Amino acid sequence: MPELPETETIARDLDAMVCGAVIVGVEVRKADVLREADASGFAAALHGLTIAHVWRRAKLIVLDMRPTAAVATAPPATEPPWRVVVQPRFTGGMVVDDGSLSEADRAYVAVTLHLHDGRAVHYRDVRRLGTVALMSPERFTKYSTALGAEPLDPRLGDAEFSGLVRGSRQAIKVFLMDQKRLAGVGNIYANEALWLAGIDPSREARTLSEQESGTLREQLCAVLTASIAARGTSFRDYRDARGERGSFVEQLAAYGRAGEPCRACGRRLVGTHAIDGRSTVFCSHCQR
């Protein structure tokens, strides 16, 4: 479930909490979440490295490493020896543990990075559908290049967004969730943005006018930004890096509200799985 706002929240938290920490041990409890390395290779590659920076790309949490002997003020162009690329998918997440994490929460830990100050960074995943990959900078660049544009990137203006939208025959909701076209948007925020923009989620993307696509981009950015400010949406499993829930669920106008009154017109919201096999909630009166 973690989408752009949730992974952005976790990445920001981790960057503030563990940047500069040295990895003194790696524990792999569930090796099936690993990609591009086995358990021993993953542990050996990271042991003794320093976490230099944590950031987000699409729905990924990216941990840049640097040799511990490197000067902290090294030029930004210096490539990390490795990147740990975490894709939480439905029930995954990362949490910093100072020793107070409950035993119940530790039951779902798949990978742990032990830090020099006694803390640990856990990758937790209830269903273990997410992945933890070890990538070289070159490998990550190739991987990242296959992903779409970032919706909050200032370089993605109305004209650029409209060009992407109007070049697609997909249903507009499917387009918003296509990670090769637009990176980071999932079911929750596609539902919300389309409701806010007054656009039927089943409409073919190319039928949107320039004005409609501009409105959609504006509302998509607005809802993503608002959710980041609320530290994401917690329905079931999502927790931030401190183990706390996000509060944006209180602001949802469409997702999860099928059968409830539309907050704009009062008519009942429609729920369907017909568009993309996912839960789609919309107002048949307000969204055209």
Textual characterization of the structure:
The chain has 288 residues and is of the alpha+beta class. The chain has two domains: 4-145, MutM-like, N-terminal (N-terminal domain of MutM-like DNA repair proteins); 158-282, Helicase, Ruva Protein, domain 3 (Orthogonal Bundle), CATH 1.10.8.50. The protein is 28% helix and 21% strand. It has eight helices and eleven strands. The chain has helices spanning 4-18, 39-46, 103-106, 137-145, 158-165, 172-177, 187-197, 210-229, and strands spanning 23-28, 34-35, 49-57, 60-67, 83-87, 92-97, 109-115, 120-125, 131-135, 270-272, 280-282. A five-stranded mixed beta sheet has the order 2-9-5-4-3. A four-stranded antiparallel beta sheet has the order 1-7-8-6, covered by helices on one side. The radius of gyration is 20 Å and the shape is globular. The two termini are 27 Å apart. The mean pLDDT is 95.
Number of domains: 2
Ranges where pLDDT stays below 50 over 5 or more residues in a row are none
Helix/sheet category: alpha+beta
Largest sheet: 5 strands, mixed
Beta fraction of the residues?
A: 15-25%
**Spatial strand arrangement across the major sheet:** 2-9-5-4-3
Please name the fourth-level CATH homologous superfamily of the largest domain: MutM-like, N-terminal
CATH architecture label name of the largest domain: Alpha-Beta Barrel
Helices and strands, in order, run as HEEHEEEEHEEEHHHHHEE
Would you give the CATH topology of the largest domain? Answer: N-terminal domain of MutM-like DNA repair proteins
Query: Helix fraction?
Result: 25-40%
- The CATH class assignment of the largest domain is Alpha Beta
Q: Give the CA-CA distance, first to last residue.
A: 27 Å
Please state the average pLDDT score: 95
Name the shape in a single word: globular
Q: Tally of extended strands?
A: 11
Total of DSSP H or I helical runs spanning 4+ residues: 8
